[in-house]
Structure formats: C-alpha cells, structure tokens
Amino acid sequence: MGSIIGLLDLGRNALLTHQKSIHVTGHNIANVNTPGYSRQRVNLAAGEAVSGTPGQIGTGVTAMEIQRIYDRLVETQINSEQQTLGRWEAREYALERVEAIFDETDGQGLQQAMSDFWNAWQDLTTDPEGYTEREALLTKTGFLATSLNQMSAGLARQQVELDFSIAGAVETINQIANQLADLNRQIGEIEISGQAANDLRDQQALLLRDLSTLVDLDSFEDDIGRVSVLVGDGKALVQGYNASQLAAQTNAQGHLDIFWTDPSGNSFDITAQVNGGRLGGWLEARDVEIVDYLSRLDNLAQNIINEVNTLHTAGFDRFANPGEVFFTGTSAADMALNAAVAADPNRVAAAATASGAPGDGGNAVLIAGLQHAPTMGGGTATFDDYYRALVTDVGSAVNAATTYHNHQSAVTASLDNFRESISGVSLEEEMVNLIKFQHAFDAAAKLVSTVDEMIDTVMDIVR
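RE: above sequence
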C-alpha cells in the first residue's frame, strides 16, 4: 500500500471524502430556513493502517457517517411543552369568545337589562294604573328575557363552534398519524440497511411536534428509527407501519366525543383521557367552563322567573283579577314574558289587594324590591351580585388563560432557541466549513496531480 498506486488511491479517497463534506455543507446552507431541519455533518476518520516497513502506513481518510445533530431530550421536552401550549392556546381562544357574550362595556348587556326591568317596576309604583308605565314595563321585560335568551344561545353556539374545531383536529390527527406510519416504513427500510435517514427523521420530528400541539401523547422510537405514538391513556395511534384512527362521534348532549378504534374495529371513548393539546383545551372549555356558565345563567333566570311569578300571582291586575304568571319558561334559553300579559298591559298585577283602591301599587313595590333582596346564593346575594360574580369569573378565566398562554409561549420559544443552538444551521459556521473542506479538496487534488507526475517519471524511466 506504500506504492505509488496506493498514493493515488489515497488521494482519490480524500477527494471523494471532502467532496461529500462539501455536499453536506451545501445541504445545510440550502436548508438554513427549513422548519425542523437539523444540521448534518460528515464524521471523518483515518483509514485503516496497513503494516509495512519500517512500520504501519496510513491509508488516508474515510467518511464514517453523515450524522444528524440533535438532542432527543430537547425534542421530547419541546413536544411536552407543545401539548401544554396548545391547551392554553385553545382555552384562551374559546374563553375570549365567551367573554364577548358577557360584555357589559357598551351599557347594552344583561346588567343594564336587569336594572331597566327593576326600574320599570319602580316607576309603576308611582302610577300603578298608568298605561304608559305598564307598556314600558312590558318592553323592558322583553329586553331582559331576550338578553338572557341570546346569552344562552351564544354560549350554546360557542359549544357548537368548538365541536367544529374538535372535528377538524381529529381529521388532522388522523392525517398526521398516517404520515408518521408511512415515514416509519421509509425510515425502517433505510436504517435497517445501515444508512441514516436524517432528512426523514427531521420530517418525523416535525410531525410529532405538530401532533403534540393538537393532543397529549407519549412517543418512543425503536432501534431503527420507527416511532410509536400513544394517546388516550396508552392507546396506540401509531405503531410500526400501522396507524389507528380517531373518530368524533355525537354524544347524548349533541356534542362530539373522541373515540379510538383498535385494529379489530372496536371503538373506545377516550374523551376523558384527552387533557392536553388544542383538543384537550377545546374539550375543557366546552364541557367545563361553558357548561358552568350556562348552568349559572340558567340559575339566575330560574330564580328571577320564580321570585317574580310568586309575587305576581299573589297580586291583582287593573280589573281586580288574580295575577297570572309573569314569566314563562324554566331557563335562560326559554325565558319569556307571558303572552297573555304581553297582549294586555292591564293584566300586570301591580295591586296588592282586590279592593281596586286607586293607587294600589303594593305588589309592584314588592316586585321592585326583589332587586335588592338576597335571593341568590342561599340568601347571601342579590340578582345583581350573582351576575357580577359570574362576569368576574369569566374575566378571570380569560386572564388566567392569557397569562398561562403567554408563559407557555415563552417556555416553548426558549426551548426552540435552545434546539436551534444545537441543531440549527449557522451560516457563519457553514461558510467556515465550506472553506475548510474546499482547501482540503484542493490539497487532495494537488496530491493526485503530484502522484500523476510521479507515475509519468516512472514511466519515462521504464521507457
């Protein structure tokens, strides 16, 4: 191997090796802005030496592998934090729209409607027989009932919109699962032959990150790069070359639950086990916060209906007839002014007795007094207090979601920066490598040229 031909072979190997290094460097430079790309490098090693006289003689350089520079622990941390970020992002999105339903800033919200309603009863006490005051009361009552109807409908509409988001997320999750299973096949075929599927592994990592944003998961790799993904308390979404499917199915409440289907076709409800990612955030907003706000809004409406109806049916209208129920319905969704009363303002039972005494507005006084009566919260709060607490809780939930979202965004940004410091492409570093490998290639070419001259010299001697 210490021969001239051995020198020529050594120079050839050096040329090819440094050419590969330049190629990989160019690949890094080309992907400097590619999302999820991990820089690569050619690991060089001295060729195996051969024994000779006066000692072993080196055989040049060889390219051992093209290595993907990444930190698996950092990738795992990023995926974990992405699950939390997706959850708070989804909750903030949903709760901000809920907050708009409870908006009181323009003076047209439920707070004003309740105030106008009680004030209309108070106005009626000054002229119990006044037709104008009775008409005004019915108008304000309609506004109150409509406000509660619209708020209830708005919350229900938000649940439906979240169902659309959930269905879209499930579809995207299934698409990603299929892509991961296909990548598993490609990576397995390449790496089982001893090659490194670096670019495919980058695609795999990026898909795992996208999937983590949508749903909480656990993932792990086998020894040839195939990834397995578990969701919903250990249900295999991706395993080897196969991908299971999630499905969004309508439940008894008319909303979507998440089901996982096993290879045998059996479906399992995993809704309660989905706690992270956007899917978990949307489910939590739909099934916890909005359900709570609807329940409290219904409680407010029910108590107004019951308290007003109790007093109204105990009073008497302008013709000394016993009062009818003032409100119909049992919740914020169906609360309405009694159609019979709405058709005839004289049916408003403002009087406390059937004597028909002029100016009897005793019952109107009692109903107006409900505004400040501790009728809510087990006798500890007024209607206004109860509703203000509800609005405050909605605002607090939005503020909390925004705070956690901002914090989690900062955490994931920090991890992304850390990943970039390890795996990202630095143009300055790559340009230095390019020059280094170029010089090495030129030197190897000079070696080949020199050996060629040596061969010519030997041939001249032989001739």
